[in-house]
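Explain this protein:
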Amino acid sequence: MRFPVDDVAAKRLREWIDAGEGGLDAVGLDMSEADLSHADFSESWFTDARLTNVKLIGAELYRSDAQGADLTGADLTGSSLVRVNLDDAILRNATLDGANLVKSSLYDVDASGASCRGTQFKGASLLGVDFCSADLSDSVFGENSFQVTLGRNTKLEGASGSIFGSVVIVEEEITRELSGTELQEWIAERGGVTQVLDRAPGIPKKDI
């Protein structure tokens, strides 16, 4: 483990380790550049925290709250983010390869340039997520609410499962909205085998 450079954040982390129980309260703290890999942060609070370039490889974050957190460049490879609240978070250029985001909530999230190779998204709410230039190769979906933005450089090879919703496609200076069969064909052209399902209009409630 490498402690954050910020003194307040480092002190809070040491106190939490010494306590040996409960979740970490890192609300609003600057945890940047820390290496917190393989630690158990179940039911912790990272709300509005700065977590840029943090290493959380293989970490357990079950039911944690990271709403509004800045995870730009963070490495969450193989981490468990089951039922984590990531609403309004920044995941720009973050690495989520092999991570488990089952039943997580991502509303209005900037995940542009993120690497999500083999990421499990089953049951996650993906509403207003920017996946432009992201790598979603081999990612797995399962009846996901999927109202996202995809770009010409978004990688979808091997992506599988099923999704609900319409998608905004940004290609050069042209923006268009695709749903149903058209969206399914667009994904298939890029090597994905995702099934686009029909559902009644309306945004589902968050399941956290």
